[in-house]
From TrEMBL:
PROSITE patterns: PROKAR_LIPOPROTEIN. This is Uncharacterized protein. It comes from Acetobacter persici.
Amino acid sequence: MTRSISGFPVFFRLLAGVAGLTVLAGCQSSAGMVKITPTPRTLIYSYVIASGMARGQVMSGQVSRERLVQIVNADRAALTAILNAEYNPSGAGLKNAGQAMENFLAVIEPTDPTPPSVVRR
């Protein structure tokens, strides 16, 4: 019988390798298995980010009056729904706040799908 060079028996090295692969395999999950449940705090963080995006669009000077009214109305609806979910937590309130955030994001989504880094000719 030959001894391994490292002095650590081959069986234990193989066992450590299999255990490592098992741990890494546990990190894998299918897309349908990952579920993120919104909380009032995550909705507030999302709102702050979306509000900054809306502010950037307004500051660019490229927003028409009609679009500005849409942004302001969607902003108010999202903030109101999130604050209601924060102070009166319920499943329906969180769902309503999540939907209001989705509506707000849909309103502030850029109208031009071409990224600004693309050179137009």
